[in-house]
Write a structure and sequence with these properties.
- This protein has about 450 residues and is of the alpha/beta class.
- β14 and β15 form a beta hairpin.
- The chain is about 30% helix and about 15% strand.
- The radius of gyration is 21 Å and the shape is globular.
- It has a single domain (about 1-10, about 20-430), classed as Alkaline Phosphatase, subunit A.
């Protein structure tokens, strides 16, 4: 993984584990017994072109409370519904809560799946499950950053299957690594390029993409030539091979004016920047639009802070919901205005939802059995609510969606065959997803 660091972007979850910086540049680095519906689904997917060329994945790490955002239960008792009031949206008969105002205005432009559900209540293990489609082979908190082991994440799969369309890496994370977003047994070639920087800051700059002061183009080329000579002399393996990959990726970025321009968020109109919100998640969303516009097929945005166990409603009201709401709505509007929404899949979700009942500390605890996912663009049908939860927002009552249903659907929208297999380190064939079906009604 290549990491470009500015400052100290960290988050802390309820298990007390601090998000640590990952590898830096120069640092240490099936088809038997298928039912007929599944066969027909695979055939239809194979016969239809990719709907989306790129995916922007906003991950609300910690678990956004679905009942306080996109799945309100106004008829439930106060200890279930919480203090937020429902508001109408641009889709008749659909309500969000009062702090999702911007999304409510454009609900006709995206779809909410309210019935996503799984059985992993851990932060790291749940994150790993959602990103890879496999249950974590470790206990929650045992491996806080399981990025370079085990199974590849969604972003690494997209990087391998689609590749780069321009000078940018095919998989970018910001403003710090996605905890379970690594390449697994795919190896360093499919690791994300990580920008550990906050694009909302006035001095934002991806400094390591600039050549060293006083280093001429000729000297830079000579150094590159010398390194290439050393690489040819001896075969690299293990960590050395990984670092060789990182150096190669870094050189491609440093030597590309087009790539450096893509990161210059300061070139954007001030009014447009303000529409996204001058927050970390808002400016990351705007930068993600610039990156997919320049050819990056997968951008993952990790937005932490959603582990709301204690006195959660003031922070949800003031610090968490409005910035995410504004960022998602502005991103959808901006992509649409530029003619990019049809070919760009936008997703916003977390690793879990939150408990139906407010706890004794005025917070909500872990609850993976129900959560909501927002989908926009990329061949999805907008203006829908898919699935439903019960009166307490505790469990799906209609059209339940599993982790592998989610991943299989995303792959299909991106033109990726979920049944495709790659050998793991032991030579065992592993399909991209462990089963899964299309989310009903989502694909246009």
């Amino acid at each position: 993984m290549i990491t470009v660091g500015i400052g100290d972007a960290r988050s802390r979850l309820c298990n007390g584990l601090s998000r640590r910086h990952l590898l830096r540049m120069g640092g240490t680095s099936l088809l038997s017994s298928l039912a007929l519906p599944r066969l027909l689904e695979l055939q239809a997917a194979a016969e239809s072109p990719a709907r989306a060329k790129a995916c922007i994945f906003l991950f609300l790490e910690g678990g956004p409370p679905h009942q306080d955002m996109w799945d309100p239960k106004p008829e439930a008792p106060a200890e279930i519904r919480g203090p937020f009031s429902p508001i109408p949206t641009s889709v008749a008969g659909t309500t969000f809560t009062e702090h999702c105002r911007e999304c409510a205005k454009i609900a006709h432009k995206f779809t909410v799946v309210r019935s996503h559900s799984h059985a992993d209540n851990g932060h790291m293990t749940g994150y790993y499950y959602v990103m890879t489609g496999r249950r974590a082979p470790f206990a929650d908190g045992e491996h806080p950053i399981p990025t370079n082991e085990h199974f590849p994440s969604l972003g690494s799969i997209v990087a391998r299957e689609k590749g780069a369309a321009g000078k940018l890496p095919p998989y970018i994370n910001m403003p710090h690594p996605m905890s379970a977003g690594g390449p697994g047994f795919y190896g360093a070639e499919y690791a994300p390029f990580v920008i550990e920087a906050d694009p909302s800051q006035p001095d934002f700059e991806v400094k390591d993409l600039s050549q060293l002061e006083g280093l001429s183009a000729d000297r830079f080329a000579l150094r590159r030539k010398m390194l290439a000579g050393l690489e040819r002399e001896r075969q690299r393996s293990g960590r050395a091979a990984a670092m060789s990959t990182y150096y190669g990726k870094a050189y491609e970025l440093i030597s590309s004016p087009e790539a450096r321009r893509a990161f210059r968020i300061q070139d954007e109109d001030a009014k447009l920047r303000e529409s996204y919100g001058m927050t970390q998640v808002g400016q990351c969303a705007l930068l993600a639009r610039r990156l997919v516009e320049s050819g990056c097929p997968f951008v993952g945005i990790d937005a932490p802070g959603w582990d709301v166990h204690f006195n959660c409603f003031p922070s949800l009201k003031d610090d968490l919901i409005p910035p995410a709401d504004r960022a998602f709505a502005a991103l959808v509007n901006d992509l649409e205005a530029r003619g990019l929404l049809e070919n760009t899949l936008v997703i916003m979700m977390g690793e879990m939802g939150r408990t139906p009942r407010v706890n004794a500390q005025a917070g909500r605890d872990h609850w993976s059995m129900a959560q909501s996912i927002l989908f926009a663009g990329g061949g999805t049908k907008p203006g829908q609510i898919i699935g439903a939860t019960d009166a307490q927002a505790a469990a799906p009552t209609r059209d339940p969606v599993s982790v592998n249903d989610f991943l299989h659907t995303v792959h299909t929208l991106l033109g990726i065959d979920s049944a495709r297999e790659y050998d793991d380190p032991l030579g065992r064939p592993v399909p991209l997803t462990d089963g899964g079906k299309l989310i009903p009604g989502l694909i246009a």
